[in-house]
Amino acid sequence: MTTELLSFSFLLLLLIIIIITPLFSTSSTMSGFTIQLIHKDSLLHPTTNLSASHLTRLLAKASHSLSRSQALSSPSTILSPVIPHNADHLMKFSIGTPPVPVLAVMDTGSDLTWLRCLPCSDCLTRSVHLFNPFLSSTYQSLPPNSPKCKQFDPNTSPYTPTCSYKYCYGDGSFSSGFLSTETFTFESTKGEPISIPEITFGCGHNNSPSFDAELFGLAGLGGMSYSLISQLSPETGKRFSYCLSPFQDNTSTSFMSFGNKAIVTGKNVVSTPLVAKEDKTFYFVTLEGISVGGRMVDARGTGEGNMFIDSGTTVSLIDSEVFEKLGDLITEVVRLDWKMDAGNTFKCYETRRRELFPDITFHFAGGADVVLEPLNAFTEPSEDGLVCLAMQATNGTGIFGNMAQQNLHIGYDIVGRNVAFAATKCAELGKQL
């Protein structure tokens, strides 16, 4: 009798522990946590190359920006118009048990999180970073009839042994492998690890060789149900924010926050509604106008949800008619003639002083006026004495790129359907979170 009572007591205690453990986990994560981001030009980035000028690096990314915008207007888009190996910021987190540290491209313009996995067909002729699922006790491949597999691809055949995927991008690159679940661990800036089990991700066994060998893969932060943001929603309330330090400061880190830590506060906070559209990946907003020197160009004719905010695109893209009028206003203020750069990509001015250029204000719906200082809108002077407007015209959807987002704390409230902006010094703010 005593033995049976002890056994019952042990089982009861074990059941209580199992039940209350998720509650403690949820409580700690809902209060929020913050992680580091690393820019591609940072000295902390594994592939940093600062030998090229600021303008040269922007030229390399300009075609990526245009393809991303135009892909939204094209019915032939495969799955995601992002070109991930040209993206700028990396997220640091760990995967598996025991945890393996990874660096993955942070991207709000795609949904699937995928990592290189062993065995890896594109790794045979080069040394790359990858995850070995056979060494993790928490790794599980998804069966084809599982809800998570059907969520990603409703047409998956139930007769295959595993849930396979192929995720294609706008430049023809791809990742393919098996959809799986694993424990993701985020090392907060306070030194506290936050572990979240059963996150769905792509275990990529065949990936385009164009992806940087030093990177594990990509963290999809878009709006689809299988994105990392959506999967973290029980723990974070579908709130996240980030603050990107100036790219030229290659010793500073940027940061990303989740949950209550992602709430943007302060006297200078402005917000604009998120616009629901057929494409669920991107975070669409409405640009109503752009002003320079007290004069505004009206952008309302381009419709509601005419721009999306994108962490994975460097250069901002603006409706072609609005862009031409904006260029005229800038030329009037600086009183310098413009000319195209050698690559015929950007409007440039012959000067070595970026501080001569005016602030540019983006007027978003809801009274959200976001001021871009010269740092956010113009390139550093090039060796041949050019300062260029880091924006381009597009006939597709507008993009608020990450260069414009420097030193802006940007918070996304997916449930409340709004985006908040606050001008700040990101390096200093990151120390407080």
Automatic annotation (TrEMBL):
The keyword Glycoprotein applies. GO terms for molecular function: aspartic-type endopeptidase activity. Keywords: Aspartyl protease, Glycoprotein, Hydrolase, Protease. One of its GO terms (biological process) is proteolysis. Pfam families: TAXi_C (PF14541), TAXi_N (PF14543). It comes from the Eukaryota. The lineage of its organism: Eukaryota, Viridiplantae, Streptophyta, Embryophyta, Tracheophyta. This is Peptidase A1 domain-containing protein. Coiled coil: none annotated. Signal peptide: none annotated. PROSITE patterns: PEPTIDASE_A1. It comes from Dendrobium thyrsiflorum (Pinecone-like raceme dendrobium). Belongs to the peptidase A1 family. Residues 89-422 form the Peptidase A1 domain.
